[in-house]
Structure to design on (286 residues):
């Protein structure tokens, strides 16, 4: 197995490993080690079925069944989420504008995702890229004074700040609101495997618990700008057969939407469950 770095801030491509094969425990541990070091790993040229995708993902931990976003599950496979702009049952896909702002997966739930594994099955001829940033590096590069400030903050995540809300089916959106009330998580978290501290704030953070929106907004805005500076980013240009695995505890990502929406883009995602976290809070005081 060979790891080839993809960017200065994060990311490595892994070559010489067949993820659909019978991998030993030590091979999985070797992958996990590279993943923890680089926060994001890419496998290219993968041909796999939904059960193979699920089987490989499970080697790294328990999978989410996506009960928090039930409308986007792949039929027959609750452990796979479809991220697609292809119509579903004659209706526009609910996931066609997924991920268009900087975020970490399932941050608006009581069990934020540890990691995600996104597999590209169809892509537009140009664009449809995804960018990723390193939140451990973002934390590390804050001044000691600022670290001390954010160490005490709780970021409140609000489902209303996911992308494309106005273009989603209102009834389905109401279900999502019911399932996912605003929830506060620590703004700085320690990675359970690497012990590294990382920022946990995003464009889906409405405010900091105990502060109002006016007080919080400039700080959220600053932290997001700081974290997503070009030098802290890896931009993935998809090919069919790519499996991109990212750690949601130490990265954020954004789907750029830099493609012709008339062209099909189809992805399947598994989600590794993180630790239960957070407490439900009242919505932001506007
Ligand atoms: C996701 C996501 C980005 C993309 O699957 O969690 O944000 O580019 N996808 O499809
Ligand atoms: Mn996402």
């Amino acid at each position: 197995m060979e790891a080839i770095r993809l960017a200065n801030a994060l990311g490595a491509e892994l070559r010489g490993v067949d993820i659909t094969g019978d991998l030993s425990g030590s091979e999985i541990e070797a992958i996990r080690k590279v993943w923890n070091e680089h926060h994001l790993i890419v496998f290219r040229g993968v041909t796999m079925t939904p059960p193979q995708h699920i089987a490989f993902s499970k080697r790294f931990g328990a999978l989410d069944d996506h009960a928090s976003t039930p409308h986007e599950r792949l039929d027959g496979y609750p452990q796979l989420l479809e991220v697609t702009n292809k119509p579903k049952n004659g209706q526009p896909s609910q996931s066609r504008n997924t991920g268009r702002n900087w975020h970490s997966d399932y941050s608006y739930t009581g069990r934020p995702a540890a990691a995600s594994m996104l597999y590209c099955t169809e892509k537009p001829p140009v664009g449809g890229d995804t960018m990723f940033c390193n939140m451990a590096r973002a934390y590390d590069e804050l001044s000691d004074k600022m670290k001390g400030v954010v160490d005490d903050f709780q970021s409140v995540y609000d489902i209303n700040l996911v992308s494309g809300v106005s273009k989603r089916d209102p009834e389905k959106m109401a279900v999502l609101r019911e399932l996912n009330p605003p929830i506060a998580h620590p703004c700085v978290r320690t990675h359970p495997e690497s012990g590294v501290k990382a920022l946990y704030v995003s464009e889906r953070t409405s405010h900091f618990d105990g502060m109002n929106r006016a007080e919080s907004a400039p700080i959220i805005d600053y932290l997001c700008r700081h974290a997503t500076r070009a030098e802290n980013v890896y931009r993935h240009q998809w090919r069919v057969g790519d499996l991109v695995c990212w750690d949601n505890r130490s990265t954020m990502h954004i789907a750029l939407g830099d493609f012709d929406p008339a062209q099909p883009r189809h992805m399947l995602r598994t989600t590794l469950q993180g630790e239960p976290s957070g407490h439900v809070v009242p919505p932001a005081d506007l």
